[in-house]
Amino acid sequence: MKIIEVADYKEMSRVSAQIILEKIKSQEHVTLGLATGGTPLGTYKELVKDHEENGTRYDHVHTYNLDEYVGLASSDPESYHAYMCEHLFHPVHIPLDQTNIPNGAAEELLQECMRYDTLIENIGGVDLQLLGIGQNGHIGFNEPGTPFSSKTHIVDLTPSTLEANAEYFADRCKQPTRALTMGISTILQSKEILLLASGEKKQEALFHLLRGEVTEAVPASALKMHDRVTIIADSQALKLVNSLGK
Ligand SMILES: N[C@@H]1[C@@H](O)[C@H](O)[C@@H](COP(=O)(O)O)O[C@@H]1O
């Protein structure tokens, strides 16, 4: 794994946007795996800024998001659909029929998982997958203990993940407790992976990922089985690694 240590969130966002832009500009057809949460927001801001200033086009870009909450329709302002439209899809003018997000409001959730997995298998995995990391080491919504062989599936979110994401819900009673997520093996199909981590809250997860063993107890540790992973982390997120791990 290649580790790029940066000073702070701003630099992490700039560097990751640069890597994504290089991919967008160097290929005639690009498939991007996208993440939500607070971590990639700065990266999306940089992409929007670049689009406005340099006119980078997204006609040849197809996107596949990691996850979505069960029970939230795409029109729900707290859904990951709405998040993606607001922060990236609308401002950079990606044709919406080229964007894919699991449908958390599907009547048949198992069928929806299979449909989503087939989409990704048919393209042979995305070209570049952007990832954040949960405080408990989760990627997408693959909680600790998820088999590395997992495909897109329905997940019951752990109390710590619910707590960590509570700030995104105006009314905590309406926070969904289940989600659909790409599985670990779905994520590992990606040709290249870019994991972002910023802030002290991520230092233990990064320590387990970088210094611990490969174990299903730390979902992100599966990334060690992939040969093209880059981690961009700021010094706060690397604090424990740098103080204990050398
Ligand atoms: N499903 C998302 C993950 O994809 C994300 O990586 C994680 C970290 O969130 P944040 O970036 O807000 O710390 O939160 C959620 O669980």
Automatic annotation (TrEMBL):
User: What keywords were assigned to this record?
Assistant: Carbohydrate metabolism, Hydrolase
Classification via Pfam families: Glucosamine_iso
| Cross-referenced PROSITE patterns | GLC_GALNAC_ISOMERASE (PS01161)
Q: What is its EC number?
A: 3.5.99.6
Which reactions does this protein catalyse?
alpha-D-glucosamine 6-phosphate + H2O = beta-D-fructose 6-phosphate + NH4(+)
Q: Which InterPro entries match?
A: Glc/Gal-6P_isomerase, Glucosamine6P_isomerase, Glucosamine6P_isomerase_CS, NagB/RpiA_transferase-like
Sequence ranges assigned to domain Glucosamine/galactosamine-6-phosphate isomerase in this UniProt record: 13-228
GO terms for MF: glucosamine-6-phosphate deaminase activity
CDD domains referenced in this protein's UniProt entry, alphabetically: GlcN6P_deaminase
Supply the SUPFAM superfamilies for this chain.
NagB/RpiA/CoA transferase-like (SSF100950)
**Hydrolase keyword on record:** yes
Q: What the protein does?
A: Catalyzes the reversible isomerization-deamination of glucosamine 6-phosphate (GlcN6P) to form fructose 6-phosphate (Fru6P) and ammonium ion.
Spell out the family assignment given in the record's similarity comment: Belongs to the glucosamine/galactosamine-6-phosphate isomerase family. NagB subfamily.
Kindly provide the name given to this protein in its UniProt entry.
Answer: Glucosamine-6-phosphate deaminase
Task: Please tell me the species this chain comes from.
Answer: Fictibacillus terranigra
The beginning of the lineage is: Bacteria, Bacillati, Bacillota, Bacilli, Bacillales
